[in-house]
Amino acid sequence: MTRMTPLLDRNEQFASAYTPVPLGPPAAQVFIVTCLDHRVDPAIVLGLRLGDAPVIRNAGGRITEAVIDDVAYIAFLAEQLFGGQLEDDRLFEVAILHHTQCGTGLLADPGFRRQAAEATGRPEAALEASAVTDPYITVKADVERLLASPRLSPKVSVSGHVYDLDTGRVTTILDARSPLPTAG
Ligand SMILES: [Zn+2]
Prior knowledge:
This protein is of the alpha/beta class and 184 residues long. The protein is 36% helix and 18% strand. The protein is built from six helices and five strands, in the order αβαβαβαααββ. Strands 2-1-3-4-5 form a five-stranded mixed beta sheet, with helices on one face. Strand 4 (156-163) and strand 5 form a beta hairpin. The protein binds zinc ion.
């Protein structure tokens, strides 16, 4: 037995009406970075369909070195596979989506953070830095962090957004910007 059993039943329904999607550039030209919170599924919140957008999810939707690794690799891959097919020579926009009521916000409490550090083996400072207490502030910090990375392709832009769990609405906080001025 597995708790996946009812979900596999749903998959059976999905597969019965499935049409394969060939590998191509993300149809929405967007790459989403968001929280792993099960109330924040970008496929549902943003109406994504298969082939629309790569998605990275971690606690808080934070820009970590691991996220930068993946963005750099996907930019390389997109350039190699689809470089000639893209409008304006742009690869994609990385949309960072933080949200209200994030569970990482609890890490702002020193006692909670100490316990979390003991349980996970992660340094307290790293846990404190990962906390999303105010998504309107952290999403701006993470847009700047990604834009400042020397590993970010100049053909990638970065934007910041907040999802409000009370209203279901996503608000853009920072419009898309590229790491370097584009020629022409
Ligand atoms: Zn969260």
